[in-house]
Write a structure and sequence with these properties.
12 helices, four-stranded mixed sheet, 257 residues, single chain, binds acetoacetyl-coenzyme A
Length: 257
């Protein structure tokens, strides 16, 4: 039995993935994470899909890794399993990912949202890295990504206490792009995904990579990466089309080439 509900083409160029383990608040067990990464890798190959929205349900985006599944594991079990290399595969995806978050986004759930390129939150969203309360620390990127997103002092406070923070705080601190009423969060994420999907896809992918490099490289290396890709885009038909369409005062028709 699968743990995801998938709707391809829910909007032009957009695929929706719903995490569907509601009885466990979408706790991310290994089978779910494997299914999610396999699905994302498959969608990466499908040209018709240009943006992907990941969501949960109103009560929970995901309440973290499945505590019951890992409670008795040894360090060697964890090392041999190396489940977090699956998360690295998500990080390497070229297509834009939008997280539509309502309710709990905790532990691995918060980390999954932060792996996405943009987070849209409902007013009821609650974020947190509560791993400290169960004797561990975030393991799927939380200490690094939350710190980069909201700053060291806040990340320290929330990671060392495990307490949750609200959608409104997440917005004020720059973790989420906007907060919308609970009835609208998914709609808003789909609308944004559709807007991005209507852009020239190679430029979208290179823009995504370049923004992500801002977290990884020195300014000089990042500027170099950006500039090379800017020049590279002049090899695409979509660059010619985009600039001609501008001069001819008509909408562009993208080929993805
Ligand atoms: N793993 C496994 N099961 C979970 C779960 C998790 N992370 N979160 C919730 N569940 C289960 C509960 O055990 C419960 O199942 P039962 O009905 O079988 O008991 C069901 O989901 C509903 O949860 P609650 O009854 O606890 O609901 P609540 O409204 O009282 O509380 C909550 C909600 C505050 C989110 C609470 O469930 C909670 O604290 N969950 C754990 C959050 C957490 O610690 N996440 C971090 C996990 S570690 C991690 O993610 C490591 C990493 O970096 C990858």
């Amino acid at each position: 039995m699968g743990f995801l509900i998938i709707e391809k083409g829910i909007r032009p160029g957009v695929a929706l993935i719903r995490l569907n383990r509601p009885e466990s608040l979408n706790a991310l067990n290994r089978a779910l994470v494997a299914e999610l990464t396999d699905t994302l890798l498959e969608m990466e190959r499908e040209e018709a899909i240009r943006a992907i929205v990941i969501t949960g349900n109103e009560r929970a985006f995901a309440a973290g890794a499945d505590i019951k599944e890992m409670a008795e594991d040894s360090a060697v079990d964890m090392l041999l399993l190396d489940q977090f290399q699956r998360w690295d595969q998500i990080k390497r995806l070229k297509k834009p990912l939008i997280a539509a978050v309502s309710g709990y986004a905790l532990g691995g759930g918060c980390e999954l949202a932060m792996l996405c390129d943009i987070i849209i939150a409902s007013e009821t969203a609650q974020f947190g890295q509560p791993e400290i309360k169960i004797g561990v620390i975030p393991g799927a990127g939380g200490t690094q990504r939350l710190t980069r997103a909201i700053g060291k002092a806040r990340a320290m406070e929330y990671i060392l206490t495990g307490k949750f923070f609200s959608a409104q705080q997440a917005e004020a601190w720059g973790l989420v792009t906007r907060v919308v009423p609970v009835e609208l969060y998914l709609e808003e994420a789909l609308r944004l995904a559709e807007e991005i999907a209507s852009m020239p896809p190679i430029a979208v992918q290179l823009a995504k990579q370049a923004v992500n490099k801002a977290y990884e490289l020195s300014l000089e290396e990042g500027l170099h990466f950006e500039r090379r890709n800017f020049y590279l885009l002049f090899a695409t038909a979509d660059q010619k089309e985009g600039m001609r369409a501008f001069m001819e005062k008509r909408p562009p028709k993208w080929q993805g080439r």
